[in-house]
Every structure is written in structure tokens, then in C-alpha cells.
Specification:
- A hairpin with a 3-residue loop joins strand 2 and strand 3 (83-86).
- The protein has 16 helices and 18 strands.
- The strands form five sheets. Strands 5-13-12-11-10-6-7 form a seven-stranded mixed β-sheet, with helices on both faces.
- It has helices at residues 4-12, 23-36, 49-56, 60-72, 148-159, 163-169, 178-191, 206-217, 232-240, 257-263, 288-301, 356-370, 375-386, 389-415, 441-450, 478-496, and strands spanning 45-46, 76-79, 83-86, 134-135, 200-203, 223-227, 244-248, 250-251, 254-255, 271-274, 304-309, 333-339, 349-353, 420-421, 430-435, 453-454, 460-462, 467-472.
- Helix content is 41%, strand content 14%.
- Helix 8 (206-217) packs across helix 12 and helix 15 packs across helix 16 (478-496).
- The chain has three domains: 4-107, Winged helix-like DNA-binding domain superfamily/Winged helix DNA-binding domain (Arc Repressor Mutant, subunit A), CATH 1.10.10; 134-140 and 400-496, Aspartate Aminotransferase, domain 1 (Alpha-Beta Complex); 148-387, 3-Layer(aba) Sandwich (Aspartate Aminotransferase, domain 2).
- It has 498 residues and is α/β, with parallel strands linked by helices.
- GO terms for molecular function: transaminase activity.
- Residues 21-89 form the HTH gntR-type domain.
- In the C-terminal section; belongs to the class-I pyridoxal-phosphate-dependent aminotransferase family.
- Keywords: Aminotransferase, DNA-binding, Pyridoxal phosphate, Transcription, Transcription regulation, Transferase.
């Protein structure tokens, strides 16, 4: 008959030889789990390696490796000529969950909280999972263009900088960081600003920037004006802050400022959210005349303008129109942007540009959310700005993205001529496709999914007057673009034949 310890081990331990994790690690973790839960008590003698290997049907060398792993972590004591005995290390407090559980299944962590908490309807996830090979997004860059080998050298060099340790150890810094100074230099050169480090904070993302700004500006039921078709993530942040969203029409000149004059009075608006450079999702640029009207109206009515410039760097033809914030003499504009969109997301940084007193208050919120920040990232970006590498990367990628835009337009003309209307954008990584004859975009997405093409719901826009897709092309090369457009046409034809 097997000893009680042997029977217990047979119940506690199971393993998968096909797993990437070695068998001896899988088994050792489950024995540790049994010790932690009290099934194997201190002093219990474990079977010898020969018996142990027969018990689990494993090679004896694997059994030896299991015991050596347990001994190296201090969970067992191997005494020559006597055996292997269970220890309970005094400092071993980490709970390691076994790969497979049987007799301890009742100890699984609870799935439901035993107390009430506030749920948020607005924060329901829009994330959709897919196994499709081809995906259309809302205009994200191609991470394959990221210079991996160069960045590995730059990142390694940044980590070795001696001043980095001093920055981590210092509780507060009296003078502006090198990164802030370099960021101001970059923005002044590329966006026509005249700012200093007191006018800017850096964040992890544009969404984080907008969250901090919304906490500063918005109280419950404050009116926030957004475009009739606007960015869902931004709307979610405003609604979670308690704002009452009001939609403003958008035409070929961008946000309709005259509509605001006609339908709102002074001090009734808290802020206006606008993507002046390229309105999301339609990509329409706010005209120069309307920019001046909106700035004057903000001063007269007493509302803030949140200018989200999410893809300023990607300009293919002509010069990009400077941000409204660069012409703001009255402190009415809060400017949100992102730097490093040609890089991996972990190297990108969001930023807020605003008057000194608002930035000072924003720092208080940022210190709660992200007090330390990413000093290595800041060190590296500072050097990339000062050496001109950021500028060179952007210019290099613009050439590639322009070729992809032109390629996409050729395929649209070839496969969707007379079906879809669009304007070739002068910049950005997305194109606004409008179907001339309405159809169910939900059915189109379903048919596309059947042929390995994923259209997320966040890029589909359909109501009584709109039937359109925000088609992001930046992440697809020219061969992939042809495949995607062909699949989209097949799905379209299938929906029409229903």
C-alpha cells in the first residue's frame, strides 16, 4: 500500500509535458502549494526519488531535479541516508497556485465581492477579441517600422547614465527636468509655441492627459460640447467625470461654430472638445476662420477649449496648420498631444500644454496617478530630441505612410468605384469611407469576420444620415492593403446578396 504522503502527492500533482514550463518546475510549484495549504506538514518525509518517479511516471532524474528545486527554495531538507523532509520557511509568504488543483479546489479565490461597490456604465469595455489574421483599426501606426536594434542601444545607454540614479533618489527637483526643456524646444519648433517647462506636463497617454484635465475642469452636469461624430474614448472620460455631452454638427470646415452661437448662451458651456487639425473620425480640418471664431467665442462665453492634436506629426502634403493653442493669447486653450507615435507604445508619451496655474494643479493629480513617471523613457526621449532622431524617424515614416495612403486610394478606386465616397486625406493614418447606398455595417463586419477580416465596432458609424467606416491604413503594408480591400469587397457583395 502507498503511504499517506504518496497518496496525497498523487492527488495534488498533475503536469503537462507539452507546456513550455519544465515538468520539474510544474511539480515543484504544486508541492509548494500543498505545503503552504497545510496538506504536507512540517517534518513529513517525502518518498525517495525512485518511488517518487514511479508514483508520477517520470524519469528519476526529473524527480531529483524536483527535490533539488524544493531544497534550493528552502521547502525541503535533503538529509543523506535518511531522506527528504518538509520544511516551512519562516519568510516564505508568497502563495504559489498550482497548475492543476483537485482537493484544494474549495480554496479558489472568490469571484464575487462580499460588499457593494459602484459600477460604471460608461467604462464598459469596447475591446473585442478576434483570431482574424487581418484587422482594420482607427488609424494606428505600424509597429514594424519601429527601429528595434537602434532603440535597444539607445535604451541601454539611457539606463547607464549616472544622473539617472540621482533622479530616482531625489524627492523633489527644484529646476525643470532636461526632458521638459527638450520637449518644450521640440513643441516650439514644430508647433509654433512659445512655451517654457511651466506650461507642460508629460503623461503616459493622451487618454491619461484628458482624464487629468477633466478632473480639473468638470463638475457634475457641466455641459461639454463635442463633434456630432466624436471619439468614443474621450466621450467616455467626460461622461465618467459627470459631464452632460452635447453634440455639435461637423461639416467640411470642421466643427460648426455658428451653431454654438445660436444654441448656447454665455457661461452655459464648460468646455468644447475639438480635434482642430483632423476631426475624429471624419478627418476634416477646422478652417482658419472657424478657429478664430471659436477662440473669440471662448473668451466671450467663458468656456475652455480642449484641443486634441492626436496625429499632428503625420502630414503628407503641404504644411500642417498650426494648433489653435499657438495663437491663444487669453489662456482659453488646453492642448493635448502625443510624441513618439513612430515608436513602440511603451516609448510614446502624452503631454498637456496650458497656462502655468492649470499645469501646476495638473501636477498634483499626476503625482497621485504616476508620481515617479518613466525616467528611462524621459532620458532617452530627451537625447532623441536633442540629436534630431525623433524628427528623422517621423520624416522617414511619413514617406512610407504616404505611399500606403496612395496605394489604398488606388485599391478603393479599383474595387469600390461608385460604391464608396472619400476624400484623400493630406495627413493622418485613417481615411473616412462613406457608403453611397446604406447597408448594415454590423452585417458587413460579420461577413468580413467569416473570411478572416476583423472590423471592430469602434470604427463603424451608422445612424439615419451616416453609413461610414474610419479605415486605418497605417499598420498595413501595400500587399496587406490589397488583401484587406478584396476581402472587404467580398463581404460587401455578400451582404448585398442577402
Amino acid at each position: 500500500m502507498n503511504s499517506p504522503v504518496s497518496d496525497l502527492i498523487k492527488q495534488l500533482v498533475s503536469f503537462d509535458k507539452a507546456s513550455v514550463q519544465p515538468v520539474y518546475i510544474q511539480v515543484a510549484q504544486q508541492i509548494i502549494n500543498g505545503i503552504q495549504r497545510g496538506y504536507l506538514s512540517k517534518g513529513s518525509k517525502l518518498p525517495g526519488t525512485r518511488v517518487f518517479s514511479e508514483l508520477l511516471n517520470i524519469h528519476r532524474n526529473t524527480a531529483v531535479a524536483i527535490y533539488e528545486e524544493l531544497a534550493s527554495q528552502g521547502w525541503v531538507d535533503i538529509i543523506p541516508n535518511r531522506g527528504t523532509f518538509v520544511l516551512v520557511p519562516e519568510q516564505a509568504t508568497a502563495k504559489i497556485k498550482a497548475t492543476a488543483e483537485r482537493i484544494d479546489r474549495a480554496y479558489n479565490y472568490p469571484k464575487v465581492a462580499g460588499f457593494p461597490f459602484q459600477k460604471s456604465f460608461h467604462l464598459a469595455s469596447t475591446l473585442q477579441e478576434t483570431s482574424a489574421k487581418y484587422i482594420i483599426n482607427d488609424g494606428q501606426p505600424d509597429l514594424r517600422l519601429h527601429p528595434v536594434h537602434q532603440f535597444s542601444r539607445w535604451y541601454s545607454a539611457a539606463m547607464k547614465r549616472k544622473p539617472l540614479i540621482n533622479k530616482w533618489n531625489r524627492a523633489s527637483v527644484a529646476t525643470p527636468s532636461v526632458f521638459k526643456t527638450q520637449l518644450c524646444n521640440y513643441l516650439n519648433a514644430t508647433r509654433g509655441f512659445r512655451i517654457n517647462p511651466n506650461n507642460v506636463i508629460s503623461t503616459r497617454s493622451t487618454e491619461m492627459s484628458l482624464y487629468i484635465v477633466s478632473q480639473l475642469l468638470i463638475k457634475k452636469d457641466d455641459v461639454v460640447l463635442v463633434g456630432q461624430l466624436s471619439h468614443y474614448a474621450s466621450n467616455t472620460i467626460f461622461q465618467e467625470a459627470g459631464a452632460a455631452l452635447k453634440a455639435i454638427p461637423v461639416d467640411d470646415e470642421g466643427l460648426d461654430v455658428d451653431y454654438i452661437k445660436k444654441h448656447f448662451i454665455k457661461h452655459s458651456i464648460r468646455c468644447v472638445y475639438v480635434c482642430a487639425h483632423r476631426q475624429y473620425p471624419t478627418t476634416k480640418t477646422l478652417s482658419a476662420q472657424r478657429r478664430l471664431q471659436l477662440l473669440q467665442l471662448a473668451k466671450t462665453y467663458g468656456f475652455a477649449i480642449i484641443e486634441d492634436d492626436y496625429d499632428y506629426d503625420f502630414q503628407f502634403e503641404g504644411s500642417a496648420m498650426l494648433p489653435m493653442a499657438s495663437a491663444d493669447a487669453n489662456g482659453m486653450v488646453i492642448y493635448l498631444g502625443k510624441m513618439g507615435q513612430s515608436l513602440f507604445p511603451s516609448f510614446q508619451t502624452g503631454f498637456v500644454v496650458a497656462p502655468d496655474n492649470l499645469i501646476a494643479e495638473a501636477h498634483n493629480y499626476l503625482s497621485l496617478l504616476d508620481e515617479q513617471g518613466d525616467l528611462i523613457q524621459e532620458q532617452m526621449l530627451s537625447e532623441l530630441i536633442s540629436e534630431g532622431e525623433i524628427y528623422r524617424l517621423v520624416k522617414k515614416n511619413i514617406v512610407t505612410y504616404k505611399q500606403r495612403r496612395d496605394c489604398l486610394c488606388r485599391y478603393l478606386q479599383q474595387y469600390f468605384n461608385g460604391i464608396i465616397s472619400y476624400e484623400q486625406p493630406s495627413g493622418g493614418l485613417a481615411i473616412w469611407l462613406q457608403f453611397k447606398h446604406p447597408l448594415s455595417l454590423v452585417k458587413l463586419a460579420e461577413e468580413a469576420a467569416r473570411i478572416d477580416l476583423f472590423l471592430p465596432k469602434t470604427i463603424l458609424y451608422q445612424d439615419k444620415t451616416t453609413c461610414a467606416i474610419r479605415f486605418g491604413f497605417g499598420h498595413l503594408n501595400e500587399d496587406e492593403l490589397e488583401i484587406v480591400i478584396k476581402k472587404l469587397k467580398r463581404a460587401y457583395d455578400k451582404v448585398l446578396n442577402f
